[in-house]
Amino acid sequence: MNENTDDPVYIVPHHSIRSVLSRYPELEQLFESYGLAELRDVPSRSEKAVYLTLEDALRDKNIDCAGFIALAKEHAAAYRTMVKQSLAARSYNQRDLQFLGLMPCPVKIPFDSTFFQFVSREWDGKPPFSYLIESNANNQLAYYTHIPEFKDLTDMPDVVISPGLNGYYHRDFFERFKKKGYFSDVIEHTSPTYDRLDLTDPEGHYSVIGTNIEVMVVDNTRIGDRKVPERWTDLLRPEFAGSVAIRGQDGFFCETVLLTLYKEMGLEGIRMLARSIASAVHPAQMVKNAGSKAGGPAISIMPFFFANLAKNTKDVTIVWPEEGAIVSPVTMIVKRDHREDLDPLISFLAGKETGSPPLGRALPEHGARSHPMRSPRHGVFLDRVGLYPRTRYRQRDRTGQPRICRGLFRELFMKLITVAGPPSSGKTAVILHLIQAAQAEGVRAGVAKFDCISSDDGEIYRRAQIPVCTGLSGGLCPDHFFVANIEACVAWGKKEEFDLLVTESAGLCCRCSPHLKGITAICVIDVLSGINTPKKIGPMLRLADIVVVTKGDIVSQAEREVFAFRVSRANPRAGIVMVNGLTGQGITT
Question: Which domains does the chain have, with CATH numbers?
Answer without folding.
Answer: 17-71 (no CATH), 75-211+329-381 (3.40.190), 213-326 (3.40.190.10), 415-579 (3.40.50.300)
